[in-house]
Amino acid sequence: MPHDKINRIALWSGPRNISTALMYSFAQRLDTKVFDEPLYAYYLRNSKAKAYHPGAETILNTMENDGSKVLEMMMNTADKPVLFFKNMTHHLLDLDRSFMKHMTNIVLTRDPRDMLPSFDKVISHPNMHDVGYKMHIDLLEYFEQHKIAYVVLDAKNVLLNPERVLTQLCEQTGITFDKRMLTWQPSKREEDGVWAKYWYQSVHNSSGFETYQPKTEAFPEHLKPLLKECQPYYNRLKELALT
C-alpha cells in the first residue's frame, strides 16, 4: 500500500447519477487527475452484465480485466497530488476492500424515482444488482465496521447548490475548494471511457452542473417493484448526505 502523500479520492456511485459531472468537475482542478470507471471491465468479465451492457466487448478488449491489477494501479499511480477515481459501487463485486482504508471515500446516491427511469432507457428492466443501492448500504456497513471515514452525496443536493455542497465535500476530503470545479467546456474529455457515447451525451453538452428538475412524467409501472426495493436503502443514504 502507498506511503506517499497523494490524496486518492474514490467515488462510489450508482449509475445514471451525476458521477460523470463530478468527474468533469474534479478534472478542472490543476492539482487533480481523474480516472473513469477503471473497474468496469473487471465487472463485465465477472458478471452477467456483459450480455446486455452496450459496448461490453470493446470495454473488455481495451481495459484491464483483472480487478487486483486495477487496484494496484489505483494505489501506485502518483501523477498528481489529487487522484479522483470515478467508480460504480456494483463494479466491486467480491474484490478485497481493504484498500479503501487508504482512499478518501465518497458515496454518491440519487433518488431512485429519478434514477430508475433514466437507467431503464439504456438498459431496460434493471434489477438491484444493476443499480447498486443495496451495495451502497453494504459499503457503508463495511466502512463503519472498519472505522473508515466516508462522505455521502445526494445528487439532488449537489444540483440544488453545487458550490455549497462541493465546498463541504472538499473540506471533508482534505482539499481546498476551487471555483473552477463549477464549470467546464461543453465537450468530451480524453479521460472518458469508451462507453461515453452510450451514456455521456448530456454531460458533453453541459458547461456545469444542471439545475435540478423534478421528473414530471409518470413513473413506469414495470419499475415500481424495484423502486419499492430500492427506497429503504436510499432513505438511509439520504439521511447521511451533505446538504
Description:
There is one protein chain. The protein has helices spanning 19-27, 40-45, 56-62, 67-76, 112-120, 128-131, 133-145, 155-160, 162-173, 196-199, 201-204, 224-240, and strands at residues 7-13, 32-36, 82-88, 104-109, 150-154. The chain has 243 residues and is of the alpha/beta class. It has a single domain (7-240), classed as Rossmann fold, CATH 3.40.50. A five-stranded parallel beta sheet has the order 2-3-1-4-5, with helices on both faces. Helix 7 packs parallel to helix 12. The mean pLDDT is 95.
Q: Which regions are unreliable across 5 or more consecutive residues at pLDDT < 50?
A: none
Order of helices and strands: EHEHHHEEHHHEHHHHH
In the sheet with the most strands, the strands line up as 2-3-1-4-5
Question: What is the count of β-strands?
Answer: 5
- Oligomeric status: single chain
Structural class: alpha/beta
Largest sheet: 5 strands, parallel
Q: Give the rounded overall mean pLDDT.
A: 95
* Measured distance between first and last alpha carbons: 33 Å
How many individual domains? 1
Radius of gyration: 17 Å
- In which range does the helix fraction lie? 40-55%
CATH homologous superfamily (4th level) name: P-loop containing nucleotide triphosphate hydrolases
